[in-house]
Automatic annotation (TrEMBL), chains A, B:
PANTHER family: AMINOTRANSFERASE, AROMATIC_AMINOADIPATE AMINOTRANSFERASE 1. It holds the Pfam family Aminotran_1_2. This is aromatic-amino-acid transaminase. The keyword Transferase applies. GO terms for biological process: aromatic amino acid family catabolic process; lysine biosynthetic process via aminoadipic acid; tyrosine biosynthetic process. It comes from the Eukaryota. Its cofactor is pyridoxal 5'-phosphate. Residues 187-523 form the Aminotransferase class I/classII large domain. SUPFAM superfamilies: PLP-dependent transferases.
Length: 534, 534
């Protein structure tokens, strides 16, 4: 007999005896929540993803242990001493003059209201017209109006984030990635830039190397240099990092020559990579994961653009392919994450609401084995503490109370369609205005960036100016013509390497359609001028 | 002829020629702002406190330079390479496909409304009844309704924080502290815990010592231990850190014995110190500053409780002294900060809205010389980025657009009066219920904490149990009687030191009045039981 699935459960009254062994789905969430009972989590309540995962997680094997990879600093960080008080607080009738939390009577906010789109009516125009006003009061929990209120959200909180938002991101993570080991957990962050800074401090030491893509997210590289950490850039193609080059680099690592031990941290942006726009195929991910297993790497899977995966590019003048017709289709259309194939627990996934809700929220989260999340939370407690409670409340009201998991996926489908439109406008402009004999590209499948390669060897002064010289000339000519793009060499992971190819990064994230086209037209003129074409 | 002051300017139409040489006041702010013209600061606008200080700052000498104190990591941190694009963006008509900022059309928020107290009607009850609804729209700037809107606040921002909130904290800092050197600046933080973590990483190295109070804010100590940094605890009395002991410690520093160079970072909570509740007098601050000058220290002035300075304690059953009658009186009633006497620029002040607005905002700021703030911002850019834009918007709407600087001071006076009430309830209970022959204290002048000393030598097993043994017994007896306080030894800066005195920390920040009294009654019973009194 097949084990009962979440879907089977509908109509069952006493769910407490039901052990769900199927992965969590959007429809399974209400069932799971009903089974756990109402969420009770007051000011600075201790919490953990373990409370919010479906029982199916228990049937998976435990991850390997990666504590030996922690820096001395991270390994030695213990729980705050004042947490020692917590065990006494459960005593019935105890009066505490212990913790130094301010009283909510001194928070000068009676309520926060947000106006947000209804599911399915997501545009700015529709939001203005049919958006719903959602209310968060100061004492909604006592008044039984919500499980989260301002008296909780505006006070101090644990380093995990609030139970209310932790529940949401834990469920979301299980729905999308269903990590294949049992002891995964999430913790909120103040955004992935901060997560990355914290993870670097947890895993790398002065003098170490970190492995990454040869063209790399500039901030991720610039965070490392002052820490005295070097980067070994791994070759890329249109599917991102090349597994064979990673393997070769590690197989041939010469400690003496490099002056450093063989690295074990691999930093990756697998989807819609910044700056190259490359998205690793599922096959490529499996190859890279295999190398990571062989050389015992930890993968920092930084995925701000994961939900900016677009519809397949249909070519010039072709209409957009029809969007996913259901949540299941949408989830299936996403390239599987490293987390979803991570049987060992060697992937630390960095997630963020920045690109899909709003960067100003400064809310993200990480997913990793419990012993790693635990150390991340320890570091949060003595540094960022956790994400803004105002942001957490606003996201909770939108994502949990208004949209739910299904509505959020609908929003992500909306974003997918809109970014596809933007990309297509840019690509059509490139096809129309750029000289095909010089400029080439792979249509980006995800993210915000289009990576244009110029055949610099056709430049009249190729032999004297070299890649960097021509790149500089192109940048200046672009400025003259009134368009700004970022030169590819600015993103080189190893600054000292002389690039053999010339790229320009263009974003289609923000400019209005007509300006994007005009910008590419100017780029075409700049290239022609620089290369002496007519 | 005296130079024109801010007050003189009222009625002057063309203020552009007026150079203000008086320190900024609450009433001077509108004049100063009118002179600068409307604040224009869009998405991720570059900004600096220099734009928001009054011209009087220019007449002060420059600070000394403390860059030689920076760690190798902090010193080598440069501006992000993509900032190199900024210089091109000013070119008229340029179309940018450069920066990767998402379009605000994908932020699913039409507006945020907050209900907040009117000035002078600050209680929860009054806020419910007469609070005002304040509105933040997505495109308020274009629609000329505000200088800050959601399309800006919800996007990425600079490491300084938004220009809008930076202006407010800069003005506030000048009104309250008027730092005596010209090149001071502010930068927003995600709260002082994070500021401190960042400052530690900017100034201390593994193996270093940091100087601090012998009883120390636990998190500030626990952040240091895993970094391999030791703490030299300086003796305290009821006015906090003792300047003579600081001087002696530094004069007699034996590098060989300590295995470390003479420390130069002094971490202090000068006002309402956690855990001792001690507030340093102005005289004491000047003494400590003098030692800091002599030994070339940098002072981390961590001041979360600065505005929890209370009315002078009037004794048992006495009514509260009348509150400050004006903003000027209120500001004068505050003990001057280290920042306000910092002619050298050796003070880095950590400020926060956590204790006076709401901890969940996760918004604070630092004040320091420009070359230090610059490095703090560099670190922010590759880590926390800056405070939540949602929090910044909500604080801006409350503090800048609704209350203004004057209304905020009125709120702080309200808090002052309310905390005085709370403290007095606790003190009256202590006077009523604690055995005077065992328990003694200094009435706290600021903060959230009451520090109760027990004469442990009167304990029947004093000689066998020692301080720690009796402390443990008291804690257990307290739990038995149903009250929780924190044992003083948990806060020792140097964990290995055997304490010679026994303290308990009680907070009056959060419990209702009747529960506070009942808790202290139970404490009295616990002490009597433990000490064998009747």
């Amino acid at each position: 007999m097949a084990p009962p699935s979440a879907v089977d459960i509908e109509g069952v009254t006493d769910t407490s005896a039901v052990v769900v062994t199927e992965p969590l789905t959007v429809n399974g969430v209400p069932v799971k929540r009903a089974k756990s009972g109402k969420l009770v989590a007051g000011v600075a309540a201790g919490t953990s993803s373990d409370f919010f995962k479906s029982t199916s997680c228990q049937f998976k094997p435990k991850s390997k242990n990666f504590e030996h990879r922690l820096t001395e600093e991270a390994a030695s960080r213990a729980a705050p001493s004042l947490k020692g008080l917590a065990k006494y607080l459960s005593k019935p009738g105890i009066l505490s003059l212990g913790g130094g939390l301010p009283s909510s009577e001194f928070f000068p906010f009676e309520s926060i209201d947000i106006k947000v789109p209804q599911v399915g009516q997501f545009s700015e125009q529709e939001t203005r017209e049919s958006g719903v006003q959602v209310h968060a009061g100061k004492h909604d929990v006592i008044e039984d109006k919500s499980v989260f209120d301002l008296s909780i959200a505006l006070n101090y909180a644990q380093g995990t984030g609030s139970a209310q938002m932790l529940r949401y991101v834990t469920e979301h993570t299980e729905i999308i990635h269903d990590p294949p080991y049992s002891n995964w957990q999430c913790a909120l962050s103040v955004g992935s830039t901060s997560s990355l800074d914290m993870l670097y401090r947890m895993f790398v030491r002065r003098g170490d190397y970190v492995l990454s893509e040869e063209y790399m997210f500039a901030t991720a590289a610039e965070a490392l240099h002052p820490m005295g950490v070097k980067i070994a850039g791994i070759k890329m193609d249109s599917e991102g990092l090349i597994a064979e080059d990673l393997e070769e680099t590690l197989n041939n690592w010469n400690e003496e020559e490099r002056g450093a031990k063989k690295p074990f941290v691999l930093y990756l942006v697998p989807t819609g990579q910044n700056p190259t726009g490359a998205t690793m195929s599922f096959e490529r991910r499996k190859q890279v994961y295999k190398v990571a297993q062989k050389h015992d790497l930890i993968i920092f899977e930084d995925e701000p653009y994961y939900y900016l995966q677009m519809q397949p590019y249909q070519g010039p003048d072709a209409p957009q392919a029809p969007p996913p017709a259901s949540h299941e289709e949408f989830v299936k259309a996403l390239v599987p994450s490293f987390l979803s194939i991570d049987t060992d627990g060697r992937v630390i996934r960095l997630d963020s609401f920045s690109k899909v809700i709003a960067p100003g929220a400064r809310v993200g989260w990480i997913v990793a084995p419990d012993h790693i999340v635990d150390k991340f939370v320890r570091l949060s407690e003595v540094s960022v503490q956790t994400a803004s409670g105002m942001s957490q409340m606003i996201l909770f009201k939108l994502l949990d109370e208004t949209w739910g998991h299904g509505g959020y996926l609908d929003w992500l489908i909306h974003i997918r369609v809109e970014y596809t439109k933007r990309r297509d406008v840019l690509l059509h402009a490139c096809e129309a205005y750029l000289p095909g004999e010089i400029a080439s590209w792979t249509p980006p499948a995800a993210g915000m960036f289009h990576w244009i390669k110029l055949d610099w060897k056709q430049h009249p002064h190729a032999s004297t100016k070299g890649v960097r010289g021509i790149e500089e000339e192109i940048l200046e000519t672009c400025i003259d013509k009134g368009v700004l793009l970022v030169p590819g060499s600015w993103f080189l992971a190893e600054k000292s390497i002389e690039p053999t190819e010339l790229f320009l990064r263009a974003t289609f994230a923000s400019a209005p359609f007509d300006k994007m086209s005009e910008a590419i037209k100017r780029l075409g003129e700049a290239i022609r001028a620089s290369f002496g074409l007519h």
